[in-house]
Design a protein that fits this description.
alpha/beta, Rossmann fold, 9 helices, 14 strands, globular, transferase, Nucleoside_phosphorylase_d
Length: 365
């Protein structure tokens, strides 16, 4: 009887902790919303200078608020999906088009909206944007600044940002899908560090816990692979920063490397990549719900080099896309929008300014 009583108290205490965590999470979300969203859910920028500008050129996307009707082009966006390479995100655009039943008008095809930037590739499939973000923190940061401004100019309401990527596992087999719960840097700090005007600024690297839980719930027993969640570490480097022995430089031993990786595993890190801290920090600072879903290409406790055959790699990279597509379909179904959709052609508000933006981007390849 005493043991049952202890069990009951433990269960009650655990429930109270869970409720307090949920309440704290909700309060923080409410406070962030006041700073970063208008009452209708559209994005509010934390920069008063933008409203004073004649036009805002989104230089690395080859778009501009004066040259394009951004509200007409992007106002219906609900999901912004990002991944490293242009090819992967073009593939995802075609995949999600089939998944949500999006129909293009006869004689048309998907086009790279940001082709003239020569930096990022962007495809729009109804309410879904599919965009390449390049490799590493700086590339993702530049893109996020301009995407957040794009959401503002387009008056997009309550967008969800998701990064679809690849990573190295820590004690996790290749092909495992990992949903990031918390993002840490190479010093295991839960923040993104940036030097602004000669001063170090730390921004919390926080992802939406509800999205984590929802994504995890969408994994099924029929999936021929594991889907897990855990802590993700972000590095500024693929080789030395991740403790690899096969870079051009290496001043540590295999023993040093293994001790470090074991330390990461003990801390709860299940994967390593190169974008999570800035992705989590900037979306959180903007009040945008965000999630990261990656597939592991290898277990770093067993080696450094990615050795899987090309066809296996291609199949593995589809796994995060499948999970993300399930979430998109679920949300569209809840909104009554999961049906065949007619595309809206891109709208040019000012042909002269459009040409100038295009030429300016082309001039700096």
């Amino acid at each position: 009887m005493a043991y049952q009583g202890e069990q009951k108290r433990d269960t009650t205490n655990s429930l109270k902790v869970t409720q307090l965590d949920a309440q704290s999470e909700e309060e923080e979300r409410s406070e962030t919303a006041k700073l970063t969203r208008y009452n209708d859910g559209s994005v509010k920028l934390r920069n008063p200078n933008i409203e004073l500008m004649d036009q805002d050129i989104l230089y690395h996307l080859a778009l501009g608020s004066g040259s394009h009707d951004l509200h007409e082009m992007f106002g219906d966006v609900k999901f912004v999906c990002m991944g490293g390479t242009p090819k992967r995100m073009e593939t995802f655009a075609h995949f999600i088009m089939d998944e949500i039943g999006y129909k293009l008008p006869a004689g048309t095809q998907l086009q790279d909206i940001s082709a003239f930037s020569y930096r990022y590739s962007m495809y729009k499939v109804g309410p879904v944007l599919s965009i390449s973000h390049g490799m590493g923190v700086p590339s993702v940061g530049i893109l996020l600044h301009e995407l957040i401004k794009l959401m503002y100019h387009a008056k997009v309401k309550d967008p969800i940002f998701m990064r679809i990527g690849t990573c190295g596992g820590i004690g996790v087999e290749g092909g495992t899908v990992v949903i990031t719960e918390d993002a840490y840097d190479g010093l295991l700090r839960n923040s993104y560090e940036l030097a602004i005007l000669g001063k170090i600024v730390h921004r919390p690297a926080i992802l939406d816990k509800r999205l984590v839980r929802e994504l995890k719930s969408l994994a099924t027993q029929d999936d021929p692979y594991d889907t897990i969640s855990g802590k993700t570490m972000c590095t500024y480097d693929f080789y030395e920063g991740q403790g690899r022995l096969d870079g051009a430089f290496c001043e540590f031993t295999e023993t040093d490397k293994m001790a470090y990786l074991e330390k990461l595993r003990d801390f709860g890190v299940v994967n390593i990549e190169m974008e999570c801290t800035i992705f989590a920090a900037l979306t959180h600072y903007a009040g945008i719900k965000a999630a990261i879903v990656c597939v592991t290409l290898l277990d770093r406790l067993k080696g450094d080099q990615v050795m899987a055959p090309k066809e296996v790699m291609n199949e593995w990279q589809q796994r995060p896309q499948i999970l993300v597509s399930r979430l998109i379909k679920k949300h569209l179904a809840q909104m009554g929008q999961l049906k065949s959709l007619a595309s809206t052609p891109s709208s040019i508000k000012s042909p002269r300014r459009f040409k100038l933006v295009q030429q300016e981007s082309e001039a700096h390849e």
